[in-house]
Amino acid sequence: MKDLSIPGRIVTALAAIIFLASIVSLADNNSGAIRTLDFIREPAIYLAAVLLVIAPLVLGRGLAPAAGLLAGSMAVNFWSIWPYTPVAPQQMALGEASEDAGCMSLLAFNVLQENEDYARTARLIERVDPDILFLTETNQAWIDAMEPQVARYGYRLDQPLDNKYGKLFASKIPVVKAEYSDTFDDETPTLYATLRAPNGARFELIGLHPRPPMPGRSTAKRDASIAEAGQKTPDGLANVVAIGDFNDVPWSDTTQNFRALGEYSDPRAGRGSFATFPASYAYVGWPLDQFFVKGKVSVQDLKIGEAVGSDHLPLMARFCVDHDGR
Predict the structure, then answer these.
(1) Does residue 326 surpass a pLDDT of 80?
(2) Residue 62 to residue 122: CA distance in whole angstroms
């Protein structure tokens, strides 16, 4: 590198760092630092692509090593996120439902606890008017602020917390039962609800918001908790919808394990990543907010809403539930 210009050295160093991070991220390890690297796969591809364009301008004859590192990192990361690109096979069709299926709408949104622009979220709820509402990071101030909107729902279950893991669940659809379970972590409760669709079919709803992977901390307990949350629903119904801010990306081993063990389908697969974070730069961000279904649950529509003051974008879906014979 001693013969390279300063810009050339910078490009080469960045190429080496991106490539090394991409390789390390493949390790089967519960280290929080390593698992965090899953989050930057898509942005890393964009950064490597930009550097690959710049490289010929600043490296000249020294182009080959940096170009090889950049191309290698792009290949590794694209291989990982490939199922969530429009060129991959789709896991399920959208818009298909039987004539007797019961259909309903859903809004899941991490409001950002310290966000005090309550009015924008209130207007979002009024505009979307979902049959099922699931908000995360709700403290008592958020519960109070959303009272006029939530009062229109026939059922609600609040769990205000000041640690950024509070939750608010409300439904216009009949709720057979609902609870927040502290089985895995008493500071990050999980919602388990059994509902009855408009056609009378029962289904279960899981609402998750676990802790994110943190450098210096093992993710083993967190990963096991997420996986088990999707497998053992209280009523053991075949029809299940899982939603929430997983603090994880869908292509990570953690979330893929959740999907595989729970036998879920992901309507995003083959259509794109549906990034929701950070709200202001989601086009280069990552999909932390998840939506999975299984059994005779079909999805008619899935979309990401506009920014309304949180660091997340809202996730909106319309899905239908058919009778499963039980």
Answers:
(1) no
(2) 56
Instruction: Yes or no: say if 290 and 255 are a contact pair by the CB < 8 Å rule.
Output: yes
73-95: average pLDDT: 94
Longest dimension (CA), the chain: 73
Asked which of 114-123, 217-226, 292-301 is least confident by mean pLDDT, the reply is: 217-226
- CB-CB contact of 284 with 304 (8 Å): no
In this structure, the strands spanning 202-208 and 190-196 are: antiparallel
Q: What sections of the chain are H helices per DSSP?
A: 6-24, 32-36, 41-59, 63-81, 118-128, 140-145, 147-150, 220-231, 253-262
| pTM, two decimal places | 0.91
- What average pLDDT does this structure show over 167-188? 87
The CA distances from residue 215 to 16, 37, 121, 308, in Å, are 21, 10, 32, 30
Judge contact between 204 and 241, C-beta under 8 A: yes
Instruction: Report whether pLDDT(183) > 70.
Output: no
What average pLDDT does this structure show over 150-179?
96
Query: Alpha-carbon distance 215 to 78, whole Å?
Result: 24
CB 41 within 8 A of CB 77: yes
List of domains in the chain: 6-84 (no CATH), 102-321 (3.60.10.10)
Which residue, chain included where needed, has tokens 């309550």? 118
Structure tokens at 305: 């809403």
Residue 96 has pLDDT above 90, yes or no: no
Give me 223's structure tokens.
């990963």
The percent of residues above 90 in pLDDT, for the chain, comes to: 69
Scored b (16 or more CB within 10 A) or e, 37-67 reads bbbbbbebbebbeebbebbeebbeebbeebb
**Rounded Cα distance, 317 and 291, in Å:** 9
Between 219 and 249, name the one with better pLDDT.
249
